[in-house]
Structures are given as structure tokens and as C-alpha cells.
Design goal:
The chain is mainly beta. The protein contains one helix and ten strands. The radius of gyration is 16 Å and the shape is elongated.
């Protein structure tokens, strides 16, 4: 038995709808590990990153990862303003996309109101699209990650002002 892209998408959907933060599946020599919201503080490995700007439309069947040298990404230190702002960080290493597909409206813009479960972007890892949720409530005051840029685990993607809640 093999997993298709449709199977992986369904597994991902089920994980997102469940109360679990991590899923580890091993089937016929294939190991699939999915985490939600940066759970389990897994250490991402650069060799699992697929280079290039693939479509953000969905996972590709039979995708093969090839090693890539990570590009330099400046990590800004978190801003400490007595709890007035909160950083939204990358839960894993991969390519960050601000919109669900090329040419579509971005999930968020500066000034957008977000809730904890608001999707702010997608991180592609090995042709698997992982949604990134805000994890904070407030108003987006800055978007630091560029569309299509390689982001590292823990890199700041955006900042939310908690004082400007709806």
C-alpha cells in the first residue's frame, strides 16, 4: 500500500480537525511525521527541504526531496513591549507563502484582525503544504516574511498588536 497526495492531504485535514498536535505514521518504509502549531519542538533538518518555488495549490504526488543549502534569513529578536505585541513564528523550516495559491489574495495584510486560529500563511515542506495559524489575537502590525522565502524554524513571520483587538 502506498500513500497518494490525496491520502496525505486527508491525513493532514484530520490532524488539523483533531485535538492532537503530532502524528507519526510509518507504512511500508515510508515515515510521515506531521506536527501542528510547532508542537513537540522537532528539530527541522535542511536535507528534508525541497528547493524551488513550487505551487502552493497542494501537495504533489511522488515528490522527492533533494538537499538544499539553506539561504541566509535574518532572525529579528522578539519585541518586548510589555505584552503589547506578539510574534508569530514559523513552526517548521520550509518555503513560506502568504496566499493559498499564486495570484490569490494573501491570507493577511498589515492591519488585518486575527484570532488564534486565523491562517496567516502556508509553509511548504517536501511539497506538503502546512497551514500556519496566528496563535494570537489582535491586529497585524508587521509582516516580516517575504512570499516565497525560505524560513527557518522559529523565524518571525509577522507581529500582532494585542492592544488593537476587535
Amino acid at each position: 500500500m502506498t500513500l497518494t497526495a490525496k491520502d496525505v492531504a486527508e491525513i493532514t485535514r484530520l490532524l488539523e480537525e483533531s485535538s492532537f498536535d503530532e502524528l507519526m505514521l510509518e507504512l511500508d518504509g515510508l515515515k510521515l511525521t506531521l506536527t501542528r502549531n510547532g508542537a513537540a519542538a522537532a528539530t527541522p533538518r535542511p536535507e528534508s527541504l525541497s528547493p524551488g518555488k513550487g505551487s502552493a495549490a497542494g501537495p504533489a504526488a511522488g515528490a522527492v526531496a533533494s538537499p538544499a543549502a539553506p539561504t541566509a534569513l535574518s532572525r529579528e529578536p522578539p519585541v518586548a513591549c510589555e505584552g503589547a505585541t506578539q510574534d508569530i513564528t514559523a513552526p517548521l523550516l520550509g518555503t513560506f507563502y502568504r496566499a493559498p495559491k499564486p495570484g490569490a489574495q494573501p491570507f493577511i495584510e498589515v492591519g488585518s484582525a486575527v484570532e488564534e486560529d486565523t491562517i496567516i500563511g502556508i509553509i511548504e515542506v517536501m511539497k506538503l503544504m502546512n497551514t500556519v495559524r496566528a496563535g494570537a489575537r489582535g491586529k497585524v502590525i508587521d509582516i516580516l516574511a517575504q512570499d516565497g522565502a525560505l524560513v527557518e524554524y522559529g523565524a518571525i513571520l509577522a507581529r500582532v498588536s494585542k492592544a488593537a483587538q476587535r
